Amino acid sequence: MRRTVFSLRPVPLLAGWLCAAAAYAATFGAVVPIGGHASDLALDEARGVVYVANFTANRVEVISLQDRTVRTSFNVAPQPGALAISPDRRYLVVAHYGAWTAPGTNRNALTVIRLDDNSRQTFAMGFAPLGVAFGADGLALVVTDSDLVLFDPVSGIMQPVGNLVDLAAQVLPVPQGSMPPTILTASVAASGDGMQIYGLASLEEGVIRYHYDVRRRLLTSFAFTASPPVGPRVISPSRDGSSYLAGWGLFDPDNRLISQFPNTTGALERGSHAIDMDAGVIYAQFPSAISDDTGEPEIPTLLVLDAENLAVRERIRLPENLAGRSVLNAARDVMYSVSDSGLMVLPVGSLGAAPRVAALHEDLVFRGNVCDRRVITQDLAIVDPGGGATNFVLSVDAPGISVMPEAGTTPMIVQVRVDPATWQNQTGTATVLLNIHSSAAVNIPRPVRLLINNRNPEQRGTFINVPGKLADILADPARDRFYVLRQDRNEVLVFDGATQTQVAVLKTYNTPTQMTITYDHKCLLVGHDDSQFAAVFDLDTFEKQPPIIFPFGHYPRSVAASGRAILGLSRKADGTGTIDVVNMATRRATNLPSLGVYENKLHVNTVLAASPNGATILAASADGSVMLYNASADTFTISRKDFEELSGAFAASNYQMYVVDNHLLNASLVPVGRMESATGASSGFVFVDQGGFRSTTPGDAAPGVIQRMDLSSAAGIRPTRMAEAPLSPTICSSSKVRGFTRTLAALASRTAVVSLTQSGITVLPWNYDAAVAPPRIAQLVNAADMSLPVAPGGLVTLWGENFSPVNMATQEVPLPTALGESCLTVNGVAVPMLYVSSNQINAQLPFNMDGQAMLVLHTPGGTSDSFGFTVMPAAPGVFRSGVAGPLTNLPTVLRAVNGELVTGSNPIHPGDRIVIYAAGLGPTEPAVEAGVPAPCDPLARVVIEPTVTLGGVQLVLEYAGLAPGQIGVYQINALVPGHVPLGMEIPLSMVQGGGSTTLNVRVVD
Amino acid sequence: MSLKYIALCSLGLTACLAQQYEIGGTAGAGFATGATVTAPAGTATAGFKSGALFGGFLGHHMYERVSGEVRYTYLMHDLKLSAGGQEPTFGAQAHALHYDVLVHTRDRESPVQPFVAGGGGMMLYRGTGKEAAYQPLGEFAYLTKTRDVRPLLSVGGGVRVRLGPRLWLRAEFRDYITPFPEKVIAPASGASVSGWVHNIVPMASISYTFQ
User: Please, are residues A889 and A881 in contact by the beta-carbon 8 Å criterion?
Assistant: First the structure.
């Protein structure tokens, strides 16, 4: 029997989400009270009943599955603590717990109830039976406080299987308020196929898990200590026995901890679980260890978890607490659970149809800028995932934010409006939670994160919204990619370095904390705070490989790969940290007996960082200690404690330099420089060659600062404000690597530096700090054909210099009024933008303008001189953006008959209908706001109707207005008469409000 | 063929209306020469793919050794353009309608009658393919779905063999010569095409004579 330890560490979660449920709200599931304390249940679908052991009333309640009422009761011997039904459904075996303190006498027994005729036979037992489970062989494994026996319900013969000494059930009588799980402290259950039986029980000191292989009649056990206690005291095998839940841990058949659920009290008498491996979900209640400070009791919550890694998919309100075993029926659509009142019936198969409420977006981003101080409006869809009509109420507790309407019925689009003026004094990103309440919904909706950014033009970088709790970032040294750990979903998000778009999602185990890439650049390793495993992914195929198994009770929260050894810093249950070494061939990690001459005992909040060349691994601890593993010597060669505490950034270079917090360390980890702290707390550091990038944060809602570092002097070079703050040590402490943060990654292509920031990631070009001259506007033309003049609502192109340090096009709708750190105003009105580069901007003029106008561009380099131009009521121009095969810049005139562009090989014929796409046709009726897609019902027709001629012959105009769904693009549908001039170059002209445009087309008969 | 000879034949037609007539059907194949398209990008060859032909004629024998006939020929004649290893094609057809004078080397009752023929008329070229905004070799010319009527000069010859008292078999050929159809194969902007199109059309015909 092995003995080891494992533990949970409580950490703050989204407390708002946990505590957001209203006091009176809909719940899921029906309660069947039994007038006593239920201790166990057994499902008999063939008879349409579930048997519930009523521990205190000395009955077995027979409850109908159909009407959920107590159909009858079997009066049995005292204290039926456990029961099980035989595989052939003929026998119900009831274990009676009868361990009494003198002068009481022990009344331990087993009762066999023949279910065909309800006849009963009771067998006395010497030891107190704590649990019973039937194997596929028809024998019941009975667990007593001293041994395990196989019991044949037909003959009544008991065969000893093995001893489990010192099981710590409570002797009767027990203190007031004690519940059966805290009395029996044991649970045993068989897999669905009856081939495996797993059990869990308390020892005088610690806990024991045991496994009985029915076919081989082999018993194995595993003792350990745990903190908090292993509760709920329920064991739930999957149907095929390939995994099982014991208390708050999910184990494989080899007793390895796949994942554990964090932040639970470990109370034995509260909660339950059941695995539906076919659907890939676990239904569970784990009482939360996080107090909401309201004094109200915690709302009983059913968690729908990912069976692979315990990621929370959904939270469902329960009418009361579960309190013991749960079983799923054969169809896996109803779960029966022991609960406070007796039995709870949960129709989990119809959970999808139950009233629920959710927002379609996790985050809403509001991007203010110096050009645009108007109220920013975003649409948010509130839906019932099951498609139903469910009432909801929205609330937000922050000034300058309103929601219209604040209440409604799903599905509904609500508008969230943010007044930038309220937030103008903060130039980072403020985070506000929009809470969703529903008295009709059974789920606890996640709040929506409102991210309000009010950057100034000189702030650098483009932030990209990535919802969730982000814990680590790592650039791939061999591929133009970077990886981000999303901790709340147990995912690695893979981003393309060139486009910064997410290209893959990799599922980790529970609570991923840190990543590393093997020295051969083939595999990504992920450490976890709630799993015994480190996940391994093939970086070429993204396939999940067999994990690295760390010693039991070790949680590899930090991993680093040198050229020689891969090390893992594991959290141990005793609150210390330890270093394990990984064998990739066997996928096992073993604890190092010592770290060179130093003992292998570190502060639990220790992080590892490998130098990119694989020569060294730095270990930095929150208590101020640092250590260095030298790959050449294959041992730890340095251990120092020069600081009282350490937190923030940590990194190792190829040139034997190291950074921890604000300290620069040399090859011997001797502090050789201290970096400034005036710009804020250390957040990220990444070495590049013999220099590096460093980010600091003065506060979450303030802009962060990034600077290049001169390592010879520890001085920052050109500190530059970022669009928003990088994640701070405070925030990252919730990622469980308390105080240490890795928030910067330099892409292998050396095109950009990426930082984890408040809204997700912020991408800074490699030369983000290059001197930028003020912008100069040279020309403004109609974007369609690069002509003058321009019209209200027209798409325009600006040519000039120093417009933007980055090239960026947007697909946001409505169009943003700032793009790539640049924004534009016309007569003081913000202009929606589509594209920016150093010398070109594409934008849409406002509709409500005419005559002389002044245009001003704001960039990180400053503000341009005012550029004057004339706006005509209409200035049509046909786009030259058509493409046909290798042909480009073709006029966007299409023949309706084949939908292809008019060209020499696709000429216009008399009688054809043609469609012309153009810009600059001026105002419409109804009016459409600039930057917003044109409606399709009603169509937005132009106020000034154009005249279209072909070879001087007027075409029949069928429609002229904005193209539905397009921004600033007009569409003209016209019919070509039967008699038009033929030829290779026939002028097609459009005249409107004094403006005109002409292009030549081929016309044949 | 000289203008003088055509005028003589026309006089003969009027004079011999009461003479022998001949009606027949014909089938064969057409082989057309191409023309060179010159463009800034280089040169390409524009022309027609070989194809089958069908037709008919109505003739009259004005003199012992001179006859005339009106002929209609339908040619399956896809357009093509060739340059740089590419050869885009485009569905097309041609219709020839012309009058030929035939001069026979033997009397009209002779069982084997070699003859030479010449005449003129019109050729209608029609592009019928599927139009698309992009066509390969578009820098040279566009194969176009339209029609183009061009004058036609017909020269040829053959032999007429008696199969029965009124039934004849003819083996003959024509060269239909037309100016290049610049509407259906339209030179691109900056390109030009020159030359004539020779449609060499060997045919076999069955005809029937009557008074």
Answer: yes
Q: Is the dihedral of CA B181, B184, B185, B186 positive or negative?
A: positive
Secondary structure element (H or E) that encloses residue B5, with its range: helix B3-15
- Distance CA(A200)–CA(A214), nearest Å, equals 17
The set of residues, in sequence order, having a beta carbon less than 8 Å from that of A841 and lying 6+ positions away, is A797, A798, A803, A804, A822, A824, A833, A835, A857
Q: Could you give the CA distance from residue A311 to residue B176 in angstroms, rounded to a whole number?
A: 82
Residue A854 token pair: 């002044």
pLDDT digits (tens, 9 = 90+) for A530-552: 999 999 999 999 999 999 999 99
- CA A293, chain centre distance (Å): 26
What's the CA gap between A273 and A345, in Å, rounded? 13
The residue of chain B with its CA nearest to that of A903 is: B133
pLDDT digits (tens, 9 = 90+) for A650-705: 999 999 999 999 999 999 999 999 999 999 999 999 999 989 999 999 887 788 99
CA distance B143 to chain A (A): 7
The pLDDT of residue B14 is: 43
Closest CA relative to residue A510, chosen from A260, A252, A736: A260
Reported as a single tens digit per residue, the pLDDT across B23-48 is 999 999 999 998 999 999 899 999 99
Residue A997 pLDDT: 96
Q: How far apart are CA A408 and CA A624, in angstroms?
A: 54
What single-letter amino acid sits at B194? S
Out of A903, A909, A1005, closest to residue B133 by CB: A903
Segment A368-394 mean pLDDT: 91
DSSP B77-144: --EEEEBTTB--EE-EEEEEEEEEEEEESS-TTSSEEEEEEEEEEEEEEEE-S---S--TTTTTEEE-
pLDDT digits (tens, 9 = 90+) for A395-431: 999 999 999 999 999 999 999 999 988 888 888 999 9
Amino acid letter at A729?
Answer: P
Using the Cβ of B144 and the Cβ atoms of chain A, whether some distance falls under 8 Å is answered with yes
Distance separating alpha carbons of residues A414 and A380, to the nearest angstrom: 5
Residues of A in contact with B147 (CB under 8 A): 1005
pLDDT at A292: 61
Tokens of residue A733, six digits: 């402490």
* Residue A295 pLDDT: 64
The pLDDT confidence band at residue A732, using thresholds 50, 70 and 90, is very low
Closest chain B residue to A884, measured at CA: B134
The partner residues of A782 in beta bridges, in order of sequence, read A787, A796
- Whether the model clears a pTM of 0.80, i.e. scores above it, the answer is no
Residues A753, A743 contacting (CB under 8 angstroms) = no
d(CA A107, CA A103): 12
Check CB contact under 8 Å for B134 and A907. Answer: no
